[in-house]
Each structure stands twice: as structure tokens, then as C-alpha cells.
Amino acid sequence: MKITFLGTGTSQGVPVIACNCEVCTSADYRDKRLRTSVLIEAEEKVIVIDSGPDFRYQMLRAKVQHLDAIVFTHEHKDHTAGLDDIRAFNYKQQGPVDVYANLRVQEALKREFFYIFERFKYPGIPQLTLHTISNEPFNIGNLRFIPIEVMHYKLPVLGFRINDFTYITDAKTVSDTEKEKIKGSKILVINALQKQEHISHFTFDEAIAFAESIGAEKTYLTHISHRLGKHADVSSILPPNVELAYDGLQITI
Q1: CA-to-CA distance for 214 and 189, rounded, in angstroms?
Q2: 193 CA to centre of own chain
Q3: In terms of C-beta density within 10 A (0-12 exposed, 13-18 middle, 19 or more buried), how is residue 185 classed?
Q4: In Å, how far from its chain's centre is CA 218?
Q5: Can you tell me the distance from the alpha carbon of 76 to that of 214, in angstroms, rounded to the nearest whole number?
Q6: Helix or strand or coil: residue 221?
């Protein structure tokens, strides 16, 4: 299974518009962060988790030629806003793209992209097949997805475990029951927004503590704000088995 980090930034991305801080003006390519998303290639399937506002450019940058499915973690715009751009894959593949989301997220998609779901189908609109997911495991082809419910302040968000890889974004708290689903993962991806306290995201220290409680062989931090600091500086203070993810990073498990 090959994982590509399509984006590792928070809702505003990095650099932030009109910000002149040392992170936003950094020349290090690892400090250029599109909105958070990952590409999974395994078992002859190509799957994206979340299609944020940068989805089109992420597909172009990663040279994605085929897309089987999008799986949504939750309905916030930095995770859903790029859905319209599946049209290119519809045209090339001559068919719909599978979309996996819980009922609450589906309601949001139907509000935001109402034209996709109208009875009269305007020519050229995105084509998708909706699949309803919950907190129960589901398959995409031969790939088994185990949903992990985390809390984004008061909003339930789904992370996913696929084999020995677990991907979680926008978490502030995780129950002991859900943590049990994660344990034994070889690779964990978890959000680490900034060093300061935040109402709905793990801070840097909270993410490190969570990683230690899981004990994965390797943990990658994502959903990173410009407030966390420059990639090189933060990397120098990380534990040996924890790394800052960056856009374009690829791992194989």
C-alpha cells in the first residue's frame, strides 16, 4: 500500500493569505501546505480521503490518472470543497466515482453541491455513487476500512484504519474504545495544529502524547498550522519515531 500526502495544512493552508510570518515566507518546500488529504493506492484501487479546496491541484501535482473513490471524514469545507472536480475523472473513466460518507456528511454535500443531486441532470455535472458509512467496517474492493470516531470539539469525525495504517485528522479527543481500534497500527497519522491550546484540535504536545499512547512504529503529524513553526525547526525537537508530514511525502506499508 502506497500513501501520498496530498496536503498537510490546516483549513487556511500555508502560507496563509496576507501573512508575513517566518513560516509563511519560508523558502522550504516542506512549509508549503495545501489542505489536508491523502491518496491511497492498494489492491488495484486508487482512493482519496477528503477532497478539499485544493483537490484539483493536488490531483495534477500527484499526476493521478484514475480515481476509484473518495472517502470523507467530515463535512467541513476544507475537506469537501473540491468535490466538483471529480468531473475530469468522470469524463476519462466514463462513469461515476464512488463517494463514501455518513448520513450527516451526505446531507452537507447535498446542500453544498445541490446541482449534483437534482432530478434534472445538467450536462457535465459531477457523477458520483453515494455509499453510506457509519462506525462499522466497510470494504472498497478488497481494502477493509475500519472507521474510528474522534471528536472535533463537539463534532464527530471519522478517521480510518486500513490494514496497519491509521489516518486521523481534526481530532481533539478520542475515547478509549476507539483507541483500541488503532493499537497495533504500524503507521499512525494524526493532526497537530499548533503549540498553543485549541478548542477542537490536538496541539503539538497532545499529538505527541497520543502517539506515545498508541505506540505505532512511526507517527506522522498532519493538519499543521503556520503557528506550529518551520518544518526544519519542529523536526529537530521530535521524538525519534515521530515525523512532520509534508506535501508530496510518500510512504509504503
Answers
A1: 11
A2: 14
A3: buried
A4: 18
A5: 27
A6: strand
CB atoms < 10 A from the CB of 18, how many? 6
> Does the pLDDT at position 175 exceed 90?
yes
Residue 1 near residue 253 (C-beta atoms within 8 A): yes
- Grid look-up 491541484 returns 57
Question: In sequence order, what are the residues at sequence separation of 6 or more whose Cβ sits closer than 8 angstroms to the Cβ of residue 101?
Answer: 71, 72, 109, 130, 131, 132, 133
- Beta pairing partners, 219: 188, 242
d(CA 22, CA 217) in angstroms, rounded, equals 32
Using CA atoms, how far apart are residues 112 and 104, in angstroms rounded to an integer? 13
Q: Which three cell numbers stand for residue 13?
A: 493552508
pLDDT band with cut points at 50, 70 and 90 for residue 123: confident
Residue 198 in this model has a pLDDT that exceeds 90: yes
Separation of first and last alpha carbons in the chain: 5
Q: Do residues 48 and 6 make contact, with C-beta atoms less than 8 angstroms apart?
A: yes
Q: Per the structure block, which three cell numbers stand in for 184? A: 497495533
Strand order in the sheet with 250-252: 128-132, 97-101, 69-71, 45-49, 37-42, 2-7, 250-252
